[in-house]
Amino acid sequence: MSRLPDFRLETYFSRWEFTARHHLTASDAETMTLPELLELADAEDRHAWETLSLGYTQTCGDPGLREAIAATYERAGADDVICFAGAEEALYLAMQVLLGPGDHAVVVTPNYQAAETVPLSLCEVTGVPLDPERDWALDIDRVAAALRPNTRVVSVNFPNNPTGKVIGAADFARLAELCDERGIHLFSDEVYRGLERDPARTLPQAADLSDRALSLNVTSKSLGLPGLRIGWIACRDPRLRSRLERAKHYTTICNSAPSEVLARIALKARDRILDRNRALIAANLPLFDAFFAGFDDLFAWRAPDGGCVAYPRYLGAEGVERFCTELVEQAGVLLLPASIYRSELTDTPADRFRVGIGRRDPAPALEAFDGWLRARR
Fold first, then answer.
1. Given this model, what pLDDT does residue 9 score?
2. Residue 313 sits in the same domain as residue 331
3. Mind giving me the DSSP string for 179-248?
4. Per-residue pLDDT for 297 more than 90?
5. Could you tell me the pTM of the whole model?
6. What UniProt keywords are attached to this protein's entry (predicted)?
7. Residue numbers of the domain that contains 367
8. Strand 151-157 and strand 104-109: pairing?
């Protein structure tokens, strides 16, 4: 751990997430209360919850939970799933298992910081940036050019955090084929899958495309249940799964028994929860469209393809870092400035900020934001 830098996002959130009056940069969809989630349980899972024994659980995860997760894939079965304490543990341990000195990884940027810094602590890493001038397009040829004989991992994230970009299904399939041809593991962060604005653009899951690929997911983002701290990796390579299980013995050993039952309920009710969250985002987007249109001299706004975060450009003369700092200090409205997504691997835009669009009733935050901007004019 001493080889890892400060986690900029978490350090920033430690200061502001629970003190700012308006959390307008949330990365998760609207959550629900425990009674609301339990209302979605079938008789079997309600009984499991009410009679739950608070002992240790299986390292790979509750069998019923793994079955519920596997039901969301086309080719992965329950034995192909291993559960973790959130997506962060899964990402961290996967990189520890897949990479070491003498290896090389390719990471698409911008991305969640750990997707870059954990591989960098282990081996050489090449970044391939999404192109902001082409609607955050990914150049697959550029990924191919970055590969080396010792490349072990290509890491991607779609729908992307923070841009909301979803690439085309043909490009994603080509990426998986490229990795298979070279014997490389495609590591695919899919935590926002299911929140695409156009469901027809939903990408296949990497673990369904290749038995070498790893699909990362979690209950936190699309399902809006970060308090459960349940994530997972689906991978059809049994030897790799065995190595992941042994790595987990050194961290959490097993997951929380109550969280596993609740996650099982959520996964079984996944379609209903996603329908609710997509409807929330669809209702919120006109509010954000109207807000940014009212300040088109200050912002260049585009709604995301998928997920519940967007990455607008700030056009003000003082720069986005000062803008975000003064906004939260003076108006209590929290945004994430571009420095949080700064990459050590590639040039990344310095004039962007992340805004969250998946929480219920953003109007009070937008009103405070609006009033602060007008008072400055």
1. 93
2. yes
3. HHHHTPEEEEE-TTTT--SSGGGPPPPHHHH-SS-EEEEESSSSS--GGG--EEEE-S-HHHHHHHHHHH
4. yes
5. 0.97
6. Aminotransferase, Transferase
7. 8-33+271-375
8. parallel
